[in-house]
Design goal:
Low-confidence stretches: none
Shape: globular
Strand order of the largest sheet: 6-7-8-3-9-10
Order of helices and strands: EEEHEEEHHHEHEHEEHHEEEEEEEEEE
CATH architecture of the largest domain: 3-Layer(aba) Sandwich
Distance between the termini: 32 Å
Radius of gyration: 24 Å
Mean pLDDT: 92
Largest sheet: 6 strands, mixed
Number of domains: 2
Length: 353
């Protein structure tokens, strides 16, 4: 099967600054693919090169097998949705969506008919005569989506399109984007710095930092088995317990405690044991027997409604534990001595590589 997008050795330099550094990436047809990373990691520059808004300094860029690295945006089978909706304020919804078709020479009647179909697809039927100023942010974003989809791109590129929305609208639009992608079967390439967004919507995720791709995998692979310390810490929340490899199944922590955790790294290698807050458990010190654990003192308790997050001070670091707020759950006050324990298989060893 021909890949929807294939990057080989793609590099982008701005003067002496290397924004994207020899990236290799394959995005399959029909995938919802997220490019995730902190600000300045190169994800938007990579998207802009796929869109044709920037050109690679080096490397090959193919869309459905065709080399497009030097082609302008209008010669590529893609369309882009930006965080700023860029709608024409003087045009109503129907004319905004039909605009691209009219620029391609499609007659007015056909353009409006296709625009009406796209508006219905994003669930805005009945709002065709409204101006952007008469619509909410979420509705305007749907108009921008309809305008991008009406041209029937083979690949839809989305550059942090939900960043300007409030939390509730953003979560609602996450579901809508996933529905649209599944309904259309078109490849979506979605740039975001929001880990939850990427995990919620994507089939596969590329985690980027400093212009490089650190890991590509399914949301579950990225979260459960991060490739290195950066990915473990960036995707969700985690506790990184510093230590060294003692043997293939044991890590000796900084305080001398031994943790059963598989690693193929050489003996003596400095590593960290990643323990997610929701995988850790907290109990009175005397209540823990025959389980991997570390001891500490509760420093503070954060009430979240559906859960409590305990920040526990160990001798050499702080650890967070997330406990669901369920009836009968034991409560631990600041200053209480506690043990943090976990089930076998709840931890994952990561290094700097």
């Amino acid at each position: 099967m021909t890949a929807a997008v294939e990057l080989t050795g793609i590099t982008k330099r701005f003067g002496d600054v290397v924004a994207v550094d020899a990236v290799d990436l394959v995005i399959d047809d029909g995938q919802f693919f997220a490019m995730l990373g902190p600000s300045g990691c190169g994800k938007t520059t990579t998207l802009r090169m796929i869109a044709g808004l920037d050109f690679p300094t080096e490397g090959s860029l193919k869309i459905f097998g065709d080399e497009v690295g030097t082609l302008p945006p209008n010669k590529r089978p893609v369309n882009t949705v930006f965080q700023s909706y860029a709608l024409f304020p003087h045009m109503n919804v129907l004319d905004n969506v039909a605009f691209g078709l009219r620029m391609q020479g499609v007659n007015k009647g056909d353009a409006r008919a296709k625009a009406a179909q796209a508006i219905d697809l994003v669930r805005l039927a009945g709002m065709e005569t409204r101006k952007p100023s008469q619509m909410s942010g979420g509705q305007q974003q749907r108009v921008a989506l309809a305008r991008a989809l009406v041209n029937e791109p083979k690949v839809l590129l989305l550059d942090e399109p939900l960043g300007a929305l409030d939390l509730k609208l953003r979560q609602e639009m996450q579901g809508e984007l996933k529905r649209l992608q599944q309904e259309l079967g078109v490849s979506f390439v979605f740039v975001t710095h929001d880990q939850e967004e990427a995990l919620t919507m994507s089939d596969r995720i590329a985690v980027m930092d400093q212009g490089r791709i650190l890991q590509v995998g399914s949301p579950e692979e990225i979260y459960e088995h991060p490739a290195n310390r950066f990915v473990a810490d960036f995707i969700g929340q985690t506790n990184l317990l510093e230590g060294t490899v003692e043997d293939s199944s044991t890590v000796c922590l900084a305080n001398g405690a031994r943790v059963q955790a598989s690693s193929d790294r050489p003996v003596g290698t400095a590593v960290a044991v990643s323990l997610r807050p929701e995988r850790a458990h907290i109990a009175a010190t005397e209540a823990v027997e025959d389980r991997p654990s570390v001891e500490g003192v509760v420093d503070r308790v954060t009430y979240l409604g559906n859960a409590r997050v305990y920040t526990v001070r160990l001798d050499w670091m702080e650890v967070e534990v997330r406990e669901e707020n369920r009836p009968g759950a034991a409560l631990h006050e600041p200053g209480a001595p506690v043990s943090i324990w976990w089930d076998p298989g709840a931890v994952w060893v990561v290094g700097d590589e």
